[in-house]
Design a protein that fits this description.
binds glyoxylic acid; 4-stranded antiparallel beta sheet; Alpha-Beta Plaits; binds manganese (II) ion; single chain; about 425 residues; about 35% helix; alpha/beta
Amino acid sequence: MSVPLQISRKRIKRDIETLAVFTDPNEQGFTRLSFSKEYRDAVDYVAGKMAAEAELEVRIDEIGNLIGRKPGINENLPCLMIGSHLDTVKAGGKYDGIAGVIAGLEIARCLYDQKICLKHPLEIVGFLAEEPSPFGKSTIGSRAMTGKLELETLKKATNQQGKSLYQALKEAGGNPDKLEKVIRKPGSIASYWELHIEQGPVLDQQKIPIGVVSGIAAIVRAEITIVGESNHAGTTPMAQRKDALTAGASLVTAIDSIAREYDRMVITVGEFEIDPNFSNIIPGKVKMGLDLRSLDEDDLASAIQAIQDVTDGIKTNGLGITFNHWRSSPRVVFPREMTITAEKVCKKMNIPYLVFPSGAGHDASYLSEIAPSGMIFIPSKGGLSHCPQEHSDLSDIVKGVEVLSGVIQKLDSELSL
Ligand code: GLV
Ligand code: MN
Ligand code: MN
């Protein structure tokens, strides 16, 4: 029988407000990029609370994941894991990722206060760099934990100053040469769960407090570079220009139209650099970063082909163009037994819920490859996220923690039978 946990609104509020202070003072909103001082401060704060308020065994693994462990009654059982991330995007909000780590911490604190010991060991994880890091890579911690990150990738990825991700990890106290020690084998995690803000409008518009996440859209990232010719803005006739920006601008609109041809596909050109970006010089080069998402892998492949066809057309106009794309995270469908467990908990607690997929990516995408996983969403006011206005009500966060704690306790008894 699961015992209701005495979840503390006060502690959750204090933690969210404290973490919000660890932000880059030179940026808008909340900015805590992985490897920054603010990020290290946030990790230190949560590590301190894990040890002082829940007596967790705290460590940072070789890739830089923060892990707090509560031993189980049966240490031979695989662990139950709750995780999310403490980094933010640039000029982001106070809740993305943070809500999930604090949810895990609060559950561990309640178990400690109420002297409840689970049969399974419980691990609370703050994954390194879920968001795009200054090294261009995201979901670094969860990819490493599931064996999806190569040492070579760490050595090749560099930041704007030319420092490698490998070097940055070493400087941050990690040990990338021992990457294999981070890897968890299938079967070593009984179940992985992540509470997250929805980051979209569904729950808020329908006034429903809980989302049971059915799956996660696949993400493909791409980089397109167009090379034309820089020249004098006053003397070069319109017919003789090789303007990389006009080509780039029409490509952006074409990409937008391609996305609209598919049901529930989203494509964003969120990065755009103009070179030399000076008012009386014809732009000689542009570079853009794309993010493509869909729950349908075939649709994604076909949209990529359509973009490729448009870029081939630009080549024939005398401009150079390169198009590189790579999979950022795979499409995920959470196991039915996991979503049903969350639904049963909501029903028992009399909490209205909705089952639907996530358009945003999460560490759960990777964890689900090695462990039966699930996610709980809570409403995002106005559907806003990845911006300073991102907001979730404290009462909704508490409700989410209640549901998550019910799920963890239910799985603890069912999976140990
Ligand atoms: C993660 O924040 C994403 O880009 O979905
Ligand atoms: Mn995010
Ligand atoms: Mn997130």
